[in-house]
Amino acid sequence: MNLKLFLERQTSKCLSELGLDNSALVKQSSRPEHGQYQANGVMGAAKKTGQNPRQLASDLASLLQEKNDPNNFELEVAGPGFINFTLSGEFLSKTLHDLEKDPRLGVSLDKKRKILADYSSPNLAKEMHIGHLRSTTIGDACSRILEFLGHEVVRVNHVGDWGSQFGSLLAYMDKLSEAESNLGSELKDLELFYKKATELFKEDENFAKSAREYVVKLQSEDPQCMKLWSQFIAESLDHCQNVYERLGVALKKENTVAESFYNNQLNAVITDLESAGLITLSDGAKCVFLDAGKGRDGEPTPAIVQKSDGGFPYIATDLAATKYRSKALQVDDALYFVDARQALHFKDLFKIAKRAGFIDGNQNFVHIANGIILNKEGKPYKTREGGAVKLAEVIDESISRAKLIVSEKASEMPDEEQKRISELVGIGSIKYAELSKNRTTDYVFDWDQMLSFDGNTAPYLMYAYTRIRGIINNSGVPSDKNKNRFNLTDRSEVKLALKLVQFTESVEAVVEDYNPNLLCNYLFELAQIFMAFYEHCPVNSSEQATKESRIHLCDLTGRVLKKGLELLGIEVLERM
Question: Disulfide engineering: 398 pairs with which of 36, 44, 294, 426, CB 3.0-4.6 Å?
Fold first, then answer.
């Protein structure tokens, strides 16, 4: 149950009965130390109707008490017109019992939209680098949460596998094949392969000419060229899939819908734009002029959808993708998890697509922008040579650093167990460090901070879960969930209980604007509250009834932590 929504609905109903407009007038703010929520907005309603806010709050409180079970909460009018709900221990106990019996921990399955999530989207000319971490982890976490809420999620990895940059790569592949070199070996390092091809393009005019010819061959789907291209793409996708599997990201090869998929749809897109009266010829190129975009001379800036040589820029491919997702897949929402630096591109894309009729009025196509990853000097995170840091190497480094910490903290553990823990801690730390930040802001990549067992980090939450499991395993308390064993007498118990019943609203809050950091913050606060509860309230040394109640509180806390981390794509451990 979404407790905030429950109280909000009760308040809204009573506002309506008093003849008041209840829209946007009610908002609850939690007071966990006292088991309180607060209804705001009464003063706004009083101002609109010319009533005394304190009197209106009193009338509303009386009606709320009349309409609800008096055992659920106490009401108090506070200040100039606020209403405080103090939830009873009996109400919280029953709510906890309902959560404990529910495998979904109170989160309902009443959301049924078809939502496309476009995330990760690497360029297959190179290996995935650290810049792909944000789109990949944010998109994956949001997809998991949307599915948990009951939506049908269509995952799409819109990889770049087409275009002029492949001319050099294919020419280099052909050159290696002719020389009977070990092509397969060279392809194992795509970054080095790309670098060699690019350098050869700059240094050797004959090679550059061959590369340009390969672009034409690729666009015309020459059989020999397509054979080389397919080999390169297959190798590149294997590189990506290895990263996804190591990160625990739910993208499979079947989720790949590459740029090349839309190649045969591009001419139809241009025809549609022409039929809609959107195309203007400018220096031989087909353009769509948008009202908002102004160049330096003050004139409208065109969006070029077909070049003068007949080629297509990537906005044409994106328009084809938009049309396909809208018409063929018939999605309700399409979420594009892409770097904020592409904001103008997506603004133009969606505007053109709507004018062309590719997006229906009831469909939402949205750019979910993210910031970039910085080094400690506040600059984009790169290698010493200035290149992008490979994501596979970031994973290796994190696991290696985690291994040093784990071996120091748990030297008595078998090597295999240390290795397993190091992998989960290392990978979980990378993902959580990303997800715990506001997605729209840039953030500094800091190894020491992300691998710390203190603060808002994956290791801290993973350790909190293992500590809970240790308490439960040593308790001997039966796990029977049919009987309500919750008996909340201490303020620390009430505070923990109220945080637990807020799990539903924390999950639902993520998808209001696709901010996984809201769930991260909730889990961190829950772990902190649990640690304070455990320090203040003896568990296994208490008398039996109190012990059983507190063990069930521990168990429910552990389940919420585990499910929350699972929704973020992070695996927990039974011991560390």
Answer: 426
Q: pLDDT of 208-241, one tens digit each?
A: 898 888 888 887 888 988 888 888 888 899 999 9
**Alpha helices, DSSP H, located in 276-380:** 314-323, 343-355
Domain housing 215? 165-251
- Which amino acid would we find at residue 381? Y
Query: For the chain, how many structural domains are there in total?
Result: 2
Helices (H) then strands (E): counts for the chain: 21, 13
CATH assignment at residue 61:
3.30.1360.70
Selected residue with higher pLDDT from 471 and 34: 471
Classify strands 36-40 and 82-87 as parallel, antiparallel or unpaired: antiparallel
For residues 465 and 558, the answer to whether their CB atoms sit within 8 Å is: yes
In the Cβ-directed half-sphere of 84, how many Cα atoms lie within 13 Å? Answer: 12
Confirm if 350 and 320 have CB atoms less than 8 A apart.
no
Q: For residue 450, what pLDDT is reported? A: 95
Mean pLDDT of 167-173: 87
Is 558 within a domain?
no
- Across the range 263-278, mean pLDDT stands at 95
Measure the CA angle with vertex 474, ends 472 and 475; round to 5°.
Answer: 65
Q: What is the pLDDT of residues 2-14, one digit of tens each?
A: 777 777 777 777 7
List all residues 6 or more positions away from 364 whose beta carbon is below 8 Å from its beta carbon.
Answer: 332, 333, 334
Residue 37 structure tokens? 């929520």
- Asked if residue 465 belongs to a domain, the reply is no
- The first and second tokens of residue 485, run together, are 């064993």
Give the pLDDT of residue 134: 96
Tokens 């209403």: give the residue.
83
Alpha-helical runs (H) found in 376-516: 391-409, 415-435, 447-450, 458-473, 491-500, 503-513
Q: Which two tokens stand for residue 158?
A: 């819109």
190-205 tens-digit pLDDT: 888 888 888 898 998 9
pLDDT at residue 384 in the model: 61
Closest CA to 511 of 70, 148, 124: 148
Residue 140 CB partners (closer than 8 Å, separation 6+): 119, 120, 249, 250, 251, 569
**Is 174 a domain residue?**
yes
Q: What is the pLDDT of residue 40?
A: 67
Residue 562 has pLDDT above 70, yes or no: yes
